[in-house]
Amino acid sequence: MPAFHFSTETGTSPNDKVNDETDPLSMMQALQLSIVVPLKNEQEILYEKVEELALVLDEEVGPDRWNAILVDNGSTDRTPQIIQEIKERWPLTQPIRLEEPNIGKAMRAGLRASEAPYVFIMPIDENDVPFLTWAWRAREHYDLIIGSKRLNPVLNGQSPYRRFLTWGLNAMLSLLTEYIGADTHGCKLLRREAILPIDKRCVISRGQYDSELTIRSVRCGLRVAELPVVYSEKRPARDFMLKKIARNVVDLLRLYRALKNEPFVEGVHFHRWARSDVEDKVLPWIGTMPGRAEISHSSD
Fold this sequence. Notes:
This protein has helices at residues 24-29, 46-60, 79-89, 103-113, 129-137, 160-177, 192-201, 209-219, 241-259, 275-279, and strands spanning 3-5, 33-39, 66-73, 94-98, 118-121, 144-148, 156-157, 188-191, 223-228, 231-232, 269-272, 282-284. By secondary structure, it is of the alpha/beta class.
């Protein structure tokens, strides 16, 4: 695929409108990106991870042009208090509280609460800066950009057992739904206008919500890209694995029934990129790109 290299101070284009007003309403209207982060008992790492993320987003997106939507997913530790501390430092932060843990509902609540044209959904412990940077700079090309831990085995730090479970889950997704990607979970950059109609049709509310969202996006002919991300296990599983496996099997069967009579509406638009493309900031060349700089076609 033809490609070009792109470099800029902020990763924004001249078409992105900037509002110099400092009142909260004007700042919200100037938002370009929302970061949706589901949280459950993350008091040990939450503030530090948001600080790290803010440094990257201020440079790539611009100060006051992004906000964090922190969804407290039934925490029982100090996570709600830390969210308030984060809001005091970054006033555009939007806290959301769910009384009962449900990762699918947490992602959906954050997506629907966003007022920005782009939404980045990420687990708090999966902060892959090269992926975030590449996805943001390629946002005009795709409706959905997926960070896959399975696309490059060298970067996948899962234990052998979890790697087997992940393979099994995606094998079932491929068999039951004809999904052509390597992964459906993890970090995602969404074009909100394109994804919201897909979200409204989703029937799964738990851990396979983002699988359904991804698969429906591909079937509807949205522009989808998949990139490898660096993944490492930072904590033991919170749920007993057999219970989680049983729940996933039930959800996959529900998803199969929901999709079996829904054909692919349009042609599939699915691109895969190598990690070297991500790290070298090689971006797709599709049509015209106003405001892009340093164009050099790749021979790949």
